[in-house]
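Thread: Modeling a multi-component assembly for a lab meeting

Hi all, long-time lurker, first post. My supervisor asked me to bring a structural picture of a complex we are working on to next week's group meeting, and I have zero experience with this. I have the sequence lines for every component (656 residues in total). Could someone generate the structure of the whole assembly? Inputs are pasted exactly as I received them:
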Amino acid sequence: MAPSLEEAPESIQDVIENPLKATPKLVAPEPEHCPGPESEQAGKADSCAGCPNQAICASAPKGPDPDIPAITARLSGIQHKILILSGKGGVGKSTFTSLLAHAFATNPDSTVGIMDTDICGPSIPKMMGVENETIHVSGGGWSPVWVLENLGVMSVQFMLPNRDDAVIWRGPKKNGLIKQFLKDVEWGELDFLLVDTPPGTSDEHLSVNSFLKESGVDGAVVVTTPQEVALLDVRKEIDFCRKAGIRVLGLVENMSGFVCPKCTHESQIFQATTGGAKALAKEMDIPFLGAVPLDPRIGMSCDYGESFFDAWPDSPACTALKNVVRKVGEEIGLKPESVLPESPKD
Amino acid sequence: MSLDKVKNIVLVLSGKGGVGKSSITTQLALSLSLAGHSVGVLDIDLTGPSIPRLFGIESSKVTQAPGGWVPVPVHPANSESGIGSLRCMSLGFLLRERGDAVVWRGPKKTAMVRQFLSDVLWGECDYLLIDTPPGTSDEHISLAETLLKNALPGQVKGAVVVTTPQAVATADVKKELNFCVKTGIKVIGVIENMSGFVCPNCSECTNVFSSGGGKVMAQDFNVRFLGSVPIDPQFVMLVETGRRPVYPTGTSVRGQDMASLTLEEAAADVKEAGQLVEKYKSCSLCPIFRDITSDIIAVVEGKLVEARGA
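Re: Modeling a multi-component assembly
Sure thing. I ran the full set together rather than chain by chain. Output:
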């Protein structure tokens, strides 16, 4: 079969506009080029001809997933929902999520939750120092793991029998778990729910978007590093947000510059040859939230699961992060002082 | 299948994103090519393809021939200098705009991975390196399944697993090693990337992302440790702008003197003409990768069999 080039990159509009439906019970594995049993095209696409599932998919109830109202009800006690996105991996999405959560939680009146939707590479539990915890199930639902009195976490890591087990799942199974995280986790009253995502623009992102559309998302913070190889993928993520109707709260540049601890000479390890995040933010017309320098101590804090803010409150990276946190607060309509009270040193 | 004439297939994997899978793939490809082998690079990272950018061939397009897609050439074989040919295939070459998002659910990605494995006309090729996205999901399952079903016996030589030293990264990469165990993919070895950064001003080496995590992980899983690769901003500059790497006098890597032009001379030729593979020879990472590559070749050719256990 000669492949056709025209067919390869298709319009994403179709994927985004049609929300997920409930997955019907299939009698056979999905075939090649399957449009997805949850999609609008289920049972009707060319590739459905001859598939044993065709009748099941075609007769499945139309319209959006019936679980969406349940999700909306479950999340009704949450004031602000913020997504942390990046097209590129390893730029610091989870690090930034954990720092943002710690920063919000410094205000004892705020309650913060983190939902880790990275199913294949969950990092949040390690960074929060709760890697060996498990989820407790009660009549009201699944209880998150509480790191602090006002900071709770949910991740697939808590469900694994062994710490290093691989989660070898295809898309539909990942979607199912994300739905359960949203529907069955008993968050209670939260001021902030931070949703950490895996790299890319695929199943997890589409699911989070379609499940949360009804209950409303404040917006997304996009994280990047300065070099063009990363910006290239981040540009795709911003394009995705635009098309999916997710508001971009702003762009954060992480690992921006490295100050040698010996001679204090600043090196650009990941050089911003095309102007870095600042230029991209301008090009895409979105707010630039700030640049956080590369500080080895941030990585160390994450490895040991402690809060960088508490461990190194006087470091330049900490000051930069605090400014970014305040800007995020401003973007979602909060007073900077209420998000992160100014300490006399800042 | 289009892989019939490919002698060795090597996967580049990592559970964690941004650890340098694509830049390690790039450097392995350049080093294998410098060692005289013909190399193909297949990029199955569909939502974030980096290979076209790293080889500086972003504007190239794939051409169609009877029976399949023709991969994009990076440089031809040169028997005089003993360099093997290098070709690439990536979804990046199929996109209309470089900023376009590819928003695909699992089944669509599966179909594309299968198509990449069956419809690309590699022809005669010594090494096919397959660069993967982070994780253990659709692309990986499809890749493992398709190779298991269609590859010739002994054609898939195994996987090079990339990590960075910090515990947060090795935690995810351990999952990938378990994926290899479950899917029966042999692990050729582990490379620790971003291991230390040498300040260009005072030559102090800082372990930006701590150090040694990759080696410990390799020992724990009883797989070969192929080596540590430091951060070299000159390599980033090379792939970002095409500038030939330059180092101050006295720079020496594994006994090879890397110091070349003065910094003033370097500033003058930002867009130097010449092949990436030629310029890469001036990079301080080149001797490191020469050693890693010769280890990989030895494993692939069956000369190094036993893993150097703990």
